[in-house]
UniProtKB/TrEMBL annotation:
Its EC number is 1.2.1.3. This is aldehyde dehydrogenase (NAD(+)). Keywords: NAD, Oxidoreductase. Pfam families: Aldedh. The keyword NAD applies. The active site is at 265. It comes from the Bacteria. Signal peptide: none annotated. Gene3D superfamilies: Aldehyde Dehydrogenase, Chain A, domain 1 (3.40.605.10), Aldehyde Dehydrogenase, Chain A, domain 2 (3.40.309.10). The lineage of its organism: Bacteria, Pseudomonadati, Bacteroidota, Flavobacteriia, Flavobacteriales. The keyword Oxidoreductase applies. It comes from Chryseobacterium candidae.
């Protein structure tokens, strides 16, 4: 069996046989239980991690708070310089980190490298932004007065991330949080702790080389009880949470209860509408990549195809043919298109969803199933499948993190848009059409209700330059590009009187 150079990759990234899961700057704490990181690729133990315990938590928060006192005074463009250096390091470590992502999480090497590329891109974006944290100036109604607004850092930012993008989501949050003057504490998914440790090791080099306070970047590998502490902790000004709608609902209300801020990136139920005027070749590529890329474990994965009746049979036949050509196997081997699911729990959920779909009346055009035997020893490899369904099925309304694609037929575009919107989630959406009227209607206020709406592109693979996030049960948060940085700062309006009089606003007279 080829080992794809994993040993060397782990060494290069500073991953040991047993790692300490909490690191604040150069200090390590690990009084919690030991967890094992098992690769879904081959079912082998990659390394162990000693997690953080209760007693570590306060040390992390206190160090972070102390670091904030210092870090907020560093000019934003200088903080940008720190992020620039992280971007340079990520370029150096790209191959290793991409490989670790692929091996620990199971996505294809191409996609692992793509994820690291997203990290590099957001660093570049944040460097420029560090000179553009701009507020408005306004004209005061009072003579000799000046009004303007400015943005200040929040303090400690907590980042809770999911297994499916085990490195990129950290960097979308940290690159912005840092240039804005915040310090960060990352609670990664327990399913991908080594990716987090590798990122922290890289960031540590940057902090050391620049003599920056430890506590600017912390990692807290721990169970969900410690994650819950971050959510409840008044000292954590902003909680950025990526994960399920179920947990997100809890995070949202807990943080709101203490008047903290939150950014929520929750589930999606993303559809592509394929109209009668679609380029079918493009539609097939977009749909198949959207549905089977990352084994259907992106929050932007394509879950539903809403297809015009006149092209429905053609799309169905061609999809089945394309699925027949998919190669499933070790994601580090570039000849394979589809890697494993994250773990056997995910496999159970996949099987459960197929069962439910059949029970509700779904007809499978491409059958699913769990793969066994040589090269599939981890038990995490499944067949991407396609079913004809009604949008109203309970299982179709629900996000299953697996490569299951649902086909739905429509007659009018208005009906297609209504179907597309008729789910609880609102992350990503797309239309395949060469007709301007169809495209514009889809993008209009009467069109898609999602945070992302694309034309002639699939639902996944958003660029970092745009704001990323969605509506409804997706949580409403925005990360990454555009003006998402504003979430990481507090706004202050300043009015300055440079006269010797004190006129009051609204014309109020108050003479003593
Ligand atoms: C996610 O699945 O959590 O748009 C994020 C995409 C990627 C990000 C996905 N850039 O598919």
């Amino acid at each position: 069996v080829k080992d794809f150079g994993i040993e060397k990759t782990l060494r290069n990234l500073g991953i040991k046989e047993e790692n300490k899961g909490t690191s604040v700057g150069g200090k390590y704490f690990a009084s919690g239980k030991v967890i094992e990181s098992i690769s879904p690729v081959d079912g082998k133990l990659i390394a162990k991690v000693k997690t953080s315990g209760e007693s570590d938590y306060d040390k992390v928060i206190e160090t972070a708070q102390k670091a904030f006192q210092e870090f907020r005074l560093i000019p934003a463009p200088k903080r940008g310089e720190m992020v620039r250096q992280l971007g340079l390091k990520l370029r150096e470590y790209k191959d290793d980190l991409g490989k670790l992502v692929s091996y620990e999480m199971g996505k294809s090497l191409q996609e692992g490298l793509g994820e690291v590329q997203e990290m590099i891109d957001i660093c570049d974006f944040a460097v420029g932004l560090s000179r553009q944290l701009q507020g408005y100036t306004m004209h005061s109604e009072r003579p000799g007065h000046r009004m303007y607004e400015q943005y200040h850092p929040l303090g400690v930012v907590g980042i809770i991330t999911a297994f499916n993008f085990p490195v990129a989501v950290w960097s979308w949050n940290t690159a912005l949080a840092w240039i804005c003057g915040n310090v960060t504490i990352w609670k990664p998914s327990e399913k991908t702790p080594l990716c987090a440790i590798a990122c922290q090791n890289i960031m540590m080099e940057v902090l050391k080389e620049n003599n920056l306070p430890e506590g600017v970047s912390s990692v807290l590998v721990s169970d969900h009880e410690i994650g819950q502490k971050l959510v409840d902790d008044k000292r954590v000004a902003l909680v950025s949470f990526t994960g399920s709608t179920r947990v997100g609902r809890m995070v949202s209300s807990k943080v709101a209860e203490r008047f903290g801020k939150s950014i929520l990136e929750l589930g999606g139920n993303n559809a592509i509408i394929i109209t009668k005027e679609a380029d079918i070749d493009m539609s097939i590529i977009g749909a198949v990549f959207g549905a089977v890329g990352t084994a259907g474990q992106r929050c932007t994965s394509t879950r539903r195809l809403i297809i015009h009746e006149s092209v429905y049979d053609e799309v169905k036949t061609r999809l089945a043919k394309a699925y027949g050509q998919l190669k499933i196997g070790n994601p580090l081997d570039e000849k394979n298109h589809v890697g494993p699911l994250i773990d056997t729990d995910a496999v159970n959920q996949y099987e459960e969803a197929i069962k439910k779909c059949k029970k509700e009346g779904g007809k499978f055009v491409v059958e699913g199933g769990v793969l066994t035997g040589k090269d599939y020893e981890s038990g995490c490899y499944v067949k991407p499948c396609v079913a004809e369904v009604k949008n109203s099925y309970e299982i179709v309304q629900h996000e299953t993190f697996a490569p299951i694609l649902y086909l739905i037929k429509y007659k009018t575009l208005e009906e297609a848009i209504a179907i597309q919107n008729d789910v609880p989630q609102g992350l990503s959406s797309a239309i395949m059409t060469q007709n301007l009227r169809e495209a514009e209607l889809f993008l209009s206020h009467a069109g898609s209700d999602c945070g992302i709406a694309n034309v002639n592109i699939g639902t996944s693979g958003a660029e970092i330059g745009g704001a990323f996030g969605g509506e409804k049960e997706t949580g409403g948060g925005r990360e990454s590009g555009s003006d998402a940085w504003k979430y990481y700062m507090r706004r202050q309006t300043n009015t300055i009187n440079y006269t010797a009089q004190l006129p009051l606003a609204q014309g109020i007279k108050f003479d003593l």
